[in-house]
Amino acid sequence: MGKFGDALRRAEEERREGASPVARAGAPAALGPGELDSRVVAYLAKASPEMEQFRMLRTNIMAIDPANPPRVLAVTSSVKKEGKSLTTLNLGATFAEQRDIRVLVVDADLRRPSLAGLLGIEARFGLSHLLTRDLPLHKAVRETPIPHLHLMPAGEACTNPAELLGSRQMSDLIEVLRTEFDFVLFDTPPILCVHDMGILGARMDGVVYVIKLHVTDRLRVQHGLDILERGRARILGLVLTNVMRDARSSSVVSEYYHYHR
Ligand SMILES: Nc1ncnc2c1ncn2[C@@H]1O[C@H](COP(=O)(O)OP(=O)(O)OP(=O)(O)O)[C@@H](O)[C@H]1O
Ligand SMILES: [Mg+2]
Q1: What is the pLDDT of residues 144-176, one digit of tens each?
Q2: What pLDDT was estimated at residue 52?
Q3: Taking the alpha carbons of 181, 69, 206, 51 in that order, is the dihedral positive or negative?
Q4: Which of 9, 80, 240, 259 has the maximum number of C-beta atoms within 10 A of its C-beta?
Q5: How many CA atoms lie within 13 A of 171 on its CB side?
Q6: How far apart are CA 130 and CA 122, in angstroms?
Q7: Where are the domains of the chain?
Q8: Sheet containing 142-143: order of strands
């Protein structure tokens, strides 16, 4: 089980040392247009422990190769509802804290998009339009309430997301985004649902793999990681969500572990 097993063991030990049982996942807030979801902690609670965890995650990613840090990243997980979208947004927001930086988060979960909703943005055009029509890039990119953070929404629902994400147009778009932004983070579908993520992952500088602690079973995680490795994606690390850090508080945070095999 290697590094993955180590990461889970460490998280389990930390939990036993002082934390209370598994945290509840927050219920989705009812949002109106223009309202930012309160689970986007990096913006709303700058001094919170959750925010610190996302800053640490950013620092660890940058430290992988300080001279040439990964700039185009995908965030994925084995199955649904593990925290991919909130990790993408909060991590994107911490990248955007740096001075003179342009950051883009892309909603590449074409079947179950959520980033525009979490940011309180009503979106017309997005990724699927860029991949299927001749649309100028700026039409599919929106500013967000978070300074220096831009959003490319998913666009219209489509029936063939795997095909679109694995397409030549997608590769070309990734290269264009690389020149337009300092950091690009793709929120993606769960890898066990859309297998082409293996190919997509290899087109990125790296993949951050989210695991919902105590919820997602090991075999599924191992299977997802194997798909990425077979597709020659570079796995930058594992993010554990659903980690209770402090028994006195109800805060739910993410943990990051390096992954090398
Ligand atoms: N760090 C975390 N700790 C605990 N719960 C979390 C964490 N991050 C997200 N969640 C909860 O997990 C649920 C799913 O979050 P999110 O939408 O980010 O996941 P997802 O993997 O993108 O889901 P989907 O596959 O449906 O797109 C939400 O209820 C959210 O509040
Ligand atoms: Mg999501």
Answers
A1: 999 999 999 999 988 788 889 889 999 999 999
A2: 87
A3: negative
A4: 240
A5: 8
A6: 17
A7: 2-15+36-258
A8: 142-143, 149-152, 103-107, 183-187, 72-77, 206-212, 235-244, 252-258
Q: Write out residues with Cβ below 6 Å of ligand 1.
A: 23, 25-26, 39, 77, 80-86, 109, 112, 114, 190, 241-242, 252, 254
| CA terminus-to-terminus distance, the chain | 10
Q: What is the pLDDT of residues 221-260, one digit of tens each?
A: 999 999 999 999 999 999 999 887 664 444 555 666 666 5
pTM of the complete model: 0.86
CATH of 2-15+36-258, one of 3.40.30.10, 2.40.50.140, 3.40.1440.10, 3.40.50.300: 3.40.50.300
For the CA of 82, the nearest ligand: 1
Its sign, for the CA torsion 197, 202, 205, 211, is positive
